[in-house]
Every structure is written in structure tokens, then in C-alpha cells.
Design goal:
The chain has 294 residues and is an alpha/beta fold. 39% of the residues lie in helices and 16% in strands. The chain is built from nine helices and twelve strands. Helix 4 (105-114) links the parallel strand 4 (101-102) and strand 5 (122-128).
């Protein structure tokens, strides 16, 4: 009798083992990826679009603002980098009334690289140079309509008069706006060298411009907002083919220029923006968005 019970136990163990192997084989045969812990399934690997594939996608309008001035008339503005508070407010309202929805660089990247979905009328709202009114004037207007902005920070200016403080930058990030790099001191990327003498703290030292302008500012901003800094805007919108690999290898996923043609081989590092001109009405802005981004 004991022999019979032992035989039944061995046969049962054999069938249980085969059943488990069959289940595992079925899972593998379906192409599902299984971690060491077979209860946790990895997400399918996404396929990145080629440069040609990215170029083929419809461009998303990207707006660029600098100074937002409290003036009585656009005639009182000093240069092409300024808009009046009145026009800025009018433009934000027109965008919302027309059904435009702001998207973040993460959403834009996911759309360009992986074909991710976007709202029907997407646009990206960006600000350069760390000006204080981008916080005190622009943010309340964006808040009215649920817009989120991208703030390209020039770190040398943080905390100086008429520029944003660390606390304001942190608040923007905490509220869902995106903080990104605009270099340390707004030097043009096409002028960078690998050894350059600067004076810092009363002492002269030799620095690598790429590290000084891209890594130093990245680390400082990450220390303020406690999040990765993945995006970059070229000072003056000036980019160079030679500079793109340097930007890429320092951990930036995407870079924004101004209105020149995108590089067909590196479209992620030559994303187009338009500076909102001081003379544009709200309707004029909408027209530019419809006609300039194809």
C-alpha cells in the first residue's frame, strides 16, 4: 500500500511540473517579455522614429516670449523681444477661446519620437532668459486657462534684480511648468571652445565651454527643482551642426532654436519656435501659428 501511495505522489508531481512548463512556454510563445519574477510583465519596447519619420510629422506650433512690459502702447516697446501686458493677456485668451491646448516638451518628444497622441490644437508656450515678469505676469494668465509653460533659464541671472528667484523657479516646477536650460550666461553655442579662460570668485580658471554652459547650469537647475533637466534652448536661436552631438551627450533629449529650417538629420535638436512680435494682435498670432508650422 505504501508503494502505491508513493507511485501516485510521483505521478502527480510529474503532471504538475509539466503543467507549469506548458504555461511558461505559452507565455513565451506569445512574445510577452517576462522578468525574473514571472508575475511581473515588462511593457512592450517602443520603436523610435527615424529622423525622416520625425520630419514627416506635422509640426507643433512653439511660441517664444521674452519680456512682457507694462506699457500704454506697443509704440513704447523698445525691441522685437518685447510684448505689452495688454497684448499678452489678449493672446492667451485668444488661444484658449480658439481651443488651443498647451503641451509639455515631454508630450512633444513622445509625439515626435513614438507617435504619441496630442490634443486637437496643441502648442508649446516657452519663455527665455529668466525674466521676473514671466512669473508675476505670465503665470497668472496661464493659470486662468490651464496652460503650462516651458521656462528656459539662464542660470547666471537667478536671484538678480528683475529676474526670477530660486523659490519662484521651484514653484513653477511644482505647479507643473517645465524648467529647462538656456545656458549659464547666454553665450552662443557656435562660439564654444573646449578650453576657455574665465574669472570666477576673483580667480582665473580654464573651463570647457560645453561643460560650463550645459552641465553646470543643468546641475544647478536640477538642484533647485529636484527633477531632471532634459531640454535646452539655444541663446539667440543660433545652433550649429557641430554642437548637436555635444548637447546630446550631456543628457539633453531635445533642443529648441528659433525660426530657421530644421536639420533633416537632427530634427529633435533643431525644434522650431517663433518669437511673438510686439506688433502682433491676438488674431495675428493665431494666423502665424496656422501658417508657419506645417
Amino acid at each position: 500500500m505504501k508503494s502505491l501511495f508513493l507511485l501516485i505522489a510521483i505521478v502527480s508531481l510529474f503532471f504538475f511540473s509539466c503543467s507549469n512548463q506548458s504555461t511558461a512556454t505559452d507565455k513565451v510563445s506569445t512574445g510577452t517579455k517576462i522578468k525574473n519574477d514571472s508575475t511581473k510583465i515588462l511593457e512592450p519596447v517602443k520603436t523610435k522614429a527615424s529622423a525622416a519619420g520625425i520630419m514627416a510629422r506635422k509640426e507643433v506650433p512653439v511660441l517664444c516670449y521674452h519680456h512682457i512690459r507694462n506699457v500704454a502702447s506697443t509704440r513704447d516697446l523698445k525691441n522685437e523681444y518685447e510684448v505689452s501686458i495688454i497684448e499678452f493677456k489678449s493672446q492667451m485668451k485668444a488661444l484658449a477661446d480658439s481651443g488651443y491646448k498647451s503641451v509639455t516638451p515631454d508630450q512633444l518628444y513622445n509625439y515626435l519620437v513614438y507617435g504619441g497622441s496630442l490634443p486637437d490644437k496643441p502648442f508649446v508656450l516657452t519663455y527665455d532668459d529668466t525674466d521676473e515678469e514671466q512669473f508675476s505676469v505670465a503665470k497668472p494668465e496661464m493659470d486662468k486657462y490651464g496652460f503650462k509653460g516651458v521656462y528656459f533659464i539662464m542660470t547666471i541671472s537667478i536671484g538678480r534684480p528683475n529676474y526670477m528667484t530660486k523659490e519662484q523657479i521651484k514653484q513653477l516646477s511644482d505647479e507643473g511648468h517645465v524648467i529647462a536650460s538656456h545656458t549659464w550666461d547666454h553665450s552662443r553655442v557656435d562660439k564654444y571652445t573646449y578650453e576657455h579662460a574665465i574669472e570666477e570668485g576673483g580667480k582665473k580658471k580654464v573651463v570647457n565651454d560645453w561643460d560650463q554652459q550645459l552641465v553646470k547650469t543643468k546641475l544647478k537647475l536640477e538642484g533647485i527643482i529636484e527633477k531632471p533637466i532634459d531640454y535646452f534652448a539655444y541663446p539667440f536661436g543660433v545652433w550649429s551642426k557641430a554642437g548637436i552631438p555635444e548637447i546630446e551627450k550631456r543628457g539633453y533629449k531635445m533642443a529648441f532654436q528659433l525660426a530657421t529650417k530644421r536639420d533633416s538629420l537632427q530634427p529633435l535638436y533643431t525644434v522650431r519656435r517663433v518669437i511673438v512680435a510686439p506688433q502682433w494682435s491676438a488674431e495675428g498670432l493665431l494666423k502665424v501659428m496656422r501658417t508657419s508650422f506645417k
